[in-house]
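User: Please fill in residues for this 417-position structure.
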């Protein structure tokens, strides 16, 4: 056995990441928290349980795990967002029912038999695709994240906004997305030489539309039909949506209706007055497509109270629009020292990556943080660096390091460090 006191690798009790690796170290019994108790026959073991149903539902004891908050524009019921409860999840795949939402004019009730995807513009052969037609084309499936560019916007506030991890950072989720590569459909339509961009729009009442460079489209864009093995749910674009791995979520247009090939961006409302980065000098930066390298500790985090000194697992997620996560570091002393966290086995490109670290909390006040690095060598910046040169009115593309303050009472709060 290896004594825990021999394992610290950074300040304030962070322990060696080997504890969470497959070939991890053996540690002393001091690491264990389970206690032996007598086994009794509970009442639910005495009577038959409920019958089966057409689709499964979560346990009633898990009813608190839901998207929240649900915010809509005044006078509307579906023009807003709802956040994934990151603090209650593990692994890298978000259940479809908990995937964050962002809508501009509610969720349309689309008849899949009547819906069509039209490809037109600078193509040799304009084409129309029904769901039945798309089912004949080759499909791919990938586990990748989707993040709203407005995620973590609370971190740009002058003073720390208090809320749980999901409320502050929950406009990110990861799913297994299945569908037809858009490049296959465009090759069939025949792109004219002057075609350099596409304009994708949706079948919602807002007719959400975004311009996408053709290079991205031909690389890894798909017309998504499935999410986590089942047909897309209406809140995530049923019957079909555009999916652009690693790029800001607003571009992955839901309820995809038309693809128009253009020679230049269309400069729509949602890529000029919205979803642009306002600078301090009043100039807006347009087309900030890839989402930056980012991480957040999901546990411990606000509203997950710690119950006294001892060994805790520090767990969280990291992701990058540039590709795979190669390293996550964790600090328990406000960034004075850092230790490598263990990455779970599934480290995928443009996906969430789960990281874990062991922390021997002594019961005193502490600030815990995480910092991610991706395969291109990009390192997650501090909040101060993210805000440099930005207008106070800007709120997109915030990937600064999140700090949580742990109090001596075990309560966790959002702080700037």
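Assistant: Residues filled in for all 417 positions:
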């Amino acid at each position: 056995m290896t004594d825990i006191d021999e394992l610290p690798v950074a300040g304030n009790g962070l322990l060696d990441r080997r504890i969470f690796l497959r070939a991890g170290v053996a540690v002393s019994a001091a690491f264990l928290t389970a206690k032996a108790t007598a086994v009794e026959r509970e009442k639910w073991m005495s009577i038959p349980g409920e019958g089966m149903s057409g689709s499964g539902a979560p346990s009633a004891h898990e009813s608190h795990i839901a998207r929240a908050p649900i915010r809509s524009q005044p006078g509307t019921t579906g023009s807003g967002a709802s956040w994934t409860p990151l603090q209650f999840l593990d692994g890298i795949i978000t259940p479809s029912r908990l995937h964050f939402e962002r809508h501009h004019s509610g969720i349309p009730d689309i008849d899949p038999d009547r819906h069509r995807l039209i490809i037109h513009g600078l193509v040799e052969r304009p084409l129309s695709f029904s769901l039945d037609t798309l089912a004949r084309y080759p499909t791919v499936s990938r586990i990748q994240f989707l993040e709203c560019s407005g995620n973590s916007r609370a971190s740009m506030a002058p003073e720390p906004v208090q809320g749980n991890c999901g409320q502050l950072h929950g406009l990110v989720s990861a799913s297994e997305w299945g569908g037809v590569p858009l490049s296959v459909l465009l090759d069939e339509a025949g792109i004219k030489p002057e075609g350099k961009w596409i304009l994708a729009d949706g079948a919602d009442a807002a007719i959400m539309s975004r311009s996408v460079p053709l290079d991205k489209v031909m690389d890894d864009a798909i017309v998504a039909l499935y999410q986590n093995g089942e047909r897309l749910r209406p809140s995530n674009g049923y019957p079909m949506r555009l999916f652009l791995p690693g790029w800001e979520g607003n571009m992955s247009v839901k309820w995809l209706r038309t693809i128009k090939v253009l020679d230049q961006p269309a400069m729509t409302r949602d890529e000029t007055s919205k979803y642009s980065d306002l600078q301090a000098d009043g100039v807006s930066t347009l087309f900030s497509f890839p989402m930056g390298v980012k991480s957040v500790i999901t546990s411990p985090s606000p509203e997950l109270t710690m119950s006294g000194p001892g060994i805790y697992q520090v767990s969280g997620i990291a992701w990058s629009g540039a590709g795979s996560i190669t390293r996550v570091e964790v600090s328990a002393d406000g960034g004075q020292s850092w230790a490598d966290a263990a990455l779970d086995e599934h480290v995928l490109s443009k996906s969430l990556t789960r990281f874990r670290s062991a922390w021997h909390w002594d019961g005193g006040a502490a600030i815990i943080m995480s910092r991610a690095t991706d395969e291109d060598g990009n390192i997650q910046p501090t909040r101060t660096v993210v805000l440099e040169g930005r207008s106070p009115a800007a709120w997109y593309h915030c990937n600064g390091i999140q700090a949580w303050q742990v109090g001596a009472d075990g309560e966790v709060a959002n702080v700037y460090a």
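For context: DSSP finds five helices and 26 strands in the chain.
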